[in-house]
Amino acid sequence: MAKFHHPSETEPLLERICFNHRLFLLLVFAVCTLVLGYQLTKLKPETSFMKMIPVEHPFIQNWLKHQDELENLGNSIRIAVVAKEGDIFAADYMETLKQMTDEVFYLRGVDRAGLKSLWTASVRWMEVTEDGFVGGPVIPKGYDGSAAALEELRNNILRSGQIGRLVSNDFKSSIIYVPLFERDPETGEALDYQALSQAIEDKVRNQFAGQGVEIKIIGFAKKVGDLIEGIGSIAYFFAIAIGITLLLLYVYSRCGFSTIIPVICSIVAVIWQLGLLATFGYGLDPYSVLVPFLVFAIGVSHGVQIINAIGLEAATGADPCTAARRAFRSLYIPGMLALISDAIGFLTLYVIDIAVIRDLAVAACIGVAVIILTNLLLLPVIMSYLGVGNVFRERVKAGNATRSKVWDRLSNFAHPVVAPISIVIALVGFGWGWYQSQDLKIGDLDPGAPELHPDSRYNLDNAYITQHYSTSADVLVTMVETAKETCSTYPVMSAIDRYMWAMENVKGVQTAVSLVSVSKLYIKGTNEGNLKWQTLSRNQHVLNSSIRSASGLYNPDCSMAPVLLFLNDHKAETLARVVEATQAFAAENNTDQLKFLLASGNAGIEAATNEVIEDAQYEMLVFVYGVVSILCLITFRSLRAVCCIIIPLALTSLLCQALMAMLGIGIKVATLPVIALGVGIGVDYGIYIYSRLESFLRQGMDLQEAYYNTLRTTGKAVSFTGVTLAIGVGTWIWSPIKFQADMGILLTFMFLWNMVGALWLLPALARFFMRPERMVASPVSQQRTETANEDKSNEAATSSNSSEKSINSMDKSMSSSLT
């Protein structure tokens, strides 16, 4: 039964606060959980087009400079209306298309001035006749759905140049092009992608799909809407992870309290994290929504270590309060080191100039910070009342009384003969990983939306539109800046013409469109349609007349003219080729009066994102490993210790990159944080293993015996935690969201390999780097050694006050060591 403990002047402040005011501490935690639980109800899924892009990149700065002068090519939706029978030249089809256009026109967030379909006045036809140019809207004047009107409509479409753009090549479908505002021009509120996606489903797809047409919808907003819709399934995976953790914890401990309390404390950490995010004004986007999983996983990882330590102390006869105090005392320094390393490691993601990744970094840091409170402080305080079960205690006693064959065999990793073999295998792993990682690509490697599965409705819709239309949905825009009123001069238009020719000869570019395209068609038309005249005129009056109908292809003061490059896809290789070719052309042709600037359009924005990610990935790795190394060095005061902990992590990171290359997973917004997250969580294993190993070495044990005892205590918890967390995130593989499935594969691999590295490679490195007779005591190891020595003497005492005296004695030794 727990005994009252009288404060001692020599007690560490943190332990005094935790265990001398336990009831007050529990009350504070309960109140905070209720308050933050209420705040959690205010948290909503959210996303923003601007948060997905690197706004400080030169490409994006160029786009933002001319954003009001360009069509919204970056953030738009394309709705393909497919006739189930026949073609689009049917009265019923055209009536349905008209109703859909009207319905879309009034959706919140739509840039109505830029909306295009066969029913909008901005879609026109033009023809050269003996009397000159004639033209008008594609929909004939007085259209009544009759056979004659439909035939006139067919002729107008053929003369409009919209075949392959707004009308499919086989005349089976037509497009409604829907540009979007990032913010509502009336209210100034950010576009609600979830509401917009749902409105499109309700008011377009569901309403009209039964009227003889099929609806295909693509675009950034629809992709994000589908991702947010998939977030709902994440709750099921979270429940599965909790269930698996509970089951395995019970198998591990056979104790109800030891099973439930670590899970409850980890769930409290998730509640605090989400509540704090809502309090600070953050939302959950499709990428940071996975962070609560990681917070729960990290919480369970540290909770298992504490439960394991309490069980070891209880097996020596300590009462619940004493066992909890000893466990806290032995683990709070390495535990805090591991969690601080996690937090700062996650914070290194903030160097990436993409808001959605920075939000993920903030969410992860908040989550790790609350784990320090919920799992390192709250958990031992609760267990000081409840204690571990008799079955758990007896199992630990039995394990201490006999030598485990499993741990005895695994301790051979520290054997003088086996250790060099392990190091050689690790070197081979480094070499193989480096070789395979050379094929790792930046950006998307698949068509459509790689964040979703290939058989998702979005990607099937995208495949249809790609196959039936000449112009791709992947558009890269180069902005040609000139002096005012000079974009239509011959030198400028001639340079644009040469640029278009150069780009159309780049692999992956379908076609290029600019005011030059319109000018050539006009000049040809005014010369009896003779193809020999399809060229630029040197007469300025002719050029000025030729671009009058090129609306949208130059700005009001004729100081900027966009060149639209339609690409086969948005794969990283395609974007890199186009960007390289454009930059080479610009280097040769840019002057003070003429500049070719990248980039706008969805493909241009993605090219900028790829460049930021490519530069940031190595910077992020340097930061995360640098921070973790410095913290380990400060704590253990040994470069050897740093090498033993960091090298296994580095091997896992390199092998993870090799795995990504083999599976065809590129480094992009969704996958870039995985390595930093894996390192942050994986370092916990190494810190716990090393701190325990070093403490046994200081007791005079040889390395193999010290490692056996490390495995029997901390190693058991590390192996259990690694397997449990890997199984938990492994369930993500069946997620309807592909990038979550990819993260599940990668995190499962990193959890397992970080565990393997800590258990297999760390002792081999210790054999190579560590010299016990020359080791200088670090705060962690010295504290643990002195605590162990005190515990031995305390257990020999048989008086009723033995628990009280042992704690006071340990307090003195720990305070002196920390001082």
Automatic annotation (TrEMBL):
GO cellular component terms, A-Z: plasma membrane
Highest taxon, organism lineage: Bacteria
Keywords: Cell membrane, Membrane, Transmembrane, Transmembrane helix
Matches recorded under Pfam families: MMPL
Sequence ranges of Low complexity compositional bias: 795-819
Compartments (UniProt record): Cell membrane
Transmembrane portions of the chain: 23-41, 234-252, 259-283, 289-310, 331-355, 361-392, 413-435, 618-636, 643-665, 671-691, 717-737, 743-765
InterPro entries (alphabetical): MMPL_dom (IPR004869), Mycobact_MmpL (IPR050545), SSD (IPR000731)
Ranges for domain SSD: 263-385
Name by which UniProt lists this protein: RND family transporter
Source organism: Spartinivicinus marinus
